[in-house]
Amino acid sequence: MSMKTFFFLPVLFVSFLIQAQSLSTTKIKVATASGVSEKDAIVYLPLSYSASKKYPLVIYTHGVGEAGTDITKLYTTGLPKVLKDGYRPSFDFIMVAVQSASYSVAPEWLPSIVDQSIIRWNIDTGRIYLTGISAGGWGAYGSQLNISSQFGSRFAAIVINSGATQNIIKTNLDWWKSTKTPLWAVVGGADESYLSQSRFMVDEVNKRVVGLAALTVRAGIGHGGWDDVYKGTVKKDSKNMWEWLYQFNRASPEFPKPSTTLFSSDAALSGFATTTTANSEAKLINVNIYGGSNAYAATAWNNWNVSSSLSSGALRYSDATSSSVSATLSKSSGVNDNGSTYGSGMAPASVLRYTSNATVARTLTLSGLSSAKTYGLELYASRNNYSGNYTAFTINGVTQSISTYKNLTATATFETISPNAAGQIAITISNPQNYNYLNGFTLTETGGSTTTEPIIVTSTTTYANHTLPATGGYVNYANGIPITNLKPGDTINVLAGTYTALIFGNFKGDATRPIVIRNKGGQVKTGEIRLTNDAQYFKILGNGHSATQYGFKVYRTDYSGINVSKARDFELAYCEVYGMNVGIFIKNNPISTDASTIYPNYVFKNIYVHHNYVHNIAKEGMYIGHTDPDGGQGGNPLIPVRHENIEIAYNIVDQTGWDGIQLANARTGNKVHHNTITNYGTLNASGQRSGIELGSNTNADVYENTIKRGTGTGIMVFGYGAMNVYNNLLENCGNSYAIYANPYLSAPEDNPKQQMTITNNTVNYPSTSGAIKVGGLSTNSLPSVIQNNKILLPNAPSNWLKVHFYSVVPGSTVTGNTLISF
After folding, report:
1. Quick check: 123 and 138 in contact, CB under 8 A?
2. What DSSP string describes 139-168?
């Protein structure tokens, strides 16, 4: 059955939509790796919609603030808001904006969205456009990188506003050479992390197809301002977003060159002023270092034969225009050939093939730079020999080390570098233990000129970027962060380097303007991150450096990696934790002398833990919430405080001695989803070997997780009330049930009985005990539903259904569960 047939919906619904209004809600079914699920969406149709006319399609991907189950949140900002407020571009189109329950639209949903739109409305398939904001960059960029180049070629152009690059597959960047999809990235100059992510993507696209991507940086704008873009007030080459999109048509033989058909600008709008904006159309200088043969035949690259001369001479920009920049290398002991089949990744294969080596520290000096401009620098070091070798690059005291052995992806990336008074940047290249290498580099130049653009006149707050005063050692700011004029919405940058501990407490943003603590210049390595003294409204994000997936790396042999003893209303993401007693620990034990640690005087609430990598942990990968809500744990009779609105999503947890993820004493609004948990419970300790455990006094939904290779139950549920466990994949879950629910109702609160709905899960290779079981304490349970689950069971006995899907609660529904055939 084709996807088009599968997703067909009656035309009568469309007719009602047309007659009723131009903006409406609908349902869109999206296909994911774990099955098909239905999502809410907003659809915009022009008031003059005609079934006999073809219309461009604009797919919109929202930010994390608009995620959830309330579809009206999409009207608070971005394209749906602008259309709802009455703005109309100068051409008709259809918009589809699907809502994700968390974060944003996943790239893998896009084929379904495109195909259903073509079925339900009359779409001009040559003009399918994609645009997104913030977290929506994941889906928008992923349309080119996460699915296939064939699918990426369905889009005629993309506009991304302050887009996140997390979870895009950067090894597929070469796909852009075949899709040739034009990209325009817009970002605020004060939006530091998203600025670096946007610059990275534009640079990478232009390395592959010169001039295909453009970057506009808006001076004085933080993480926002995208409504201006959708209202057509931000322009590139005198074109607003709509004019820029419409010039690209996949059906045109001139694609991706702009067509000659232009249309009138939007009607004049009142309430606008002008602002002078730094011109940040990035210019690139690409340099390939080689040894005298097989120069790289690409006009976008300079070839520097270091065997002939340690001075490069004048270098060209990637668009073949001349520059004033040159380079010198203090030493090159020789040039190694990695071989004609070595491969590509961070740079073309011709660049990675040859590498200059030395056994002593040396200096690469870039000269002829402008003090009026800022520069980014990406350095390549790769060798097909000497396992364990590395190269360290240092600029202005900041060092980044690259493992060079067969390295095709890792680069040393430095951002916003200002040249010295002589117009130079000096880079030290070292490795005191062995050879250091240099294959080439890319210099990005921004700034220097200005343009004037219209902006909406509003009251705007400027958020500041601060750098943490400490740059290493034991950093203890438990009683407040010593930054003058720190205010809600500001960003605190932690410089790359090695720290003994990072301790933060007694600081607050507010509900709409969290304080962001982020790595800068590379990876921050520390023995511990601790959050205490009622820190509130903040984010710890390890996404401050585009080339570093986990910007905070926490490692030690004891204690907890990330320890939250008293904090709320926060987000924790893009951190790696390994080698600890417990990976991420969010709870405290009640203390008689501190009333805030005793129920009901405090609540750990509104906490989002996502996109972290927790591995090789002695006990729990994540220990969130107190195990004993009645008190008595460890002989302490006091009742601990509660948790609520805890979301644990998109994390990788591997190799834990005890449970992978434990959530307990968490009462309302909790979700555990899209996590990957492998090799859990390796110590095989009784009561401590679940993949995901929902402890007593807990209510949460568990969905779309992958849980493999453990010694105990994959998903263990001890909580109360109505709970849903669905769309999970469980495989080889030890000597117990893959999913087991058994309520324990013991707490000061009067909790409703447990009522389980367990649907659409896949259980591969269950134990002989069974796949899914509900019950044991049936007096605390209401009838459950075990429905439409699948089981992969070699040599299944004739009574497999009775053995593997079972509820002891009278009145339960057990139906539609199937055996996967080989």
Report:
1. no
2. HHHHHHHTS-HHHHTT-SEEEEES---TT-
User: Do residues 187 and 460 make contact, with C-beta atoms less than 8 angstroms apart?
Assistant: no
Residue bearing the bigger pLDDT, 309 or 432: 309
Cis before residue 640, ω within 30 degrees of 0? no
> With pLDDT > 70 as the criterion, what percentage of the chain qualifies?
91
Task: Quote the tokens at residue 700.
Answer: 């949460």
**Confidence grade of residue 315 (pLDDT, cut at 50, 70, 90):** very high
Mean pLDDT, the chain, integer: 87
375: tokens are: 């520069």
Provide the token pair at 386: 């000497």
Structure token pair of residue 818: 């199937």
Find out whether 377 and 427 touch, Cβ atoms under 8 Å: yes
CA 815 to chain centre: 37
pTM: 0.52
Q: What is the mean pLDDT of residues 605-631?
A: 94
Q: Cα–Cα distance between 154 and 520 in angstroms, integer?
A: 36
Q: Which residue has the tokens 């001890």?
A: 718
Contacts of 543 (CB under 8 A, 6+ apart): 164, 166, 193, 197, 518, 519, 551, 573, 574
**In this model, does residue 422 exceed pLDDT 80?**
yes
User: Closest Cα to residue 546, out of 509, 574, 517, 515?
Assistant: 574
Phi, psi of 118 (to 5 degrees): -65, -35
CA–CA gap between residue 681 and residue 804 (Å, rounded)? 22
**Cβ proximity of 100 and 63 under 8 Å:** no
Nearest to 307 by CA among 335, 281, 329: 335
Between 210 and 569, the higher pLDDT residue = 569
Closest CA to 786 of 760, 766, 810: 760
pLDDT at residue 11 above 60?
Answer: no
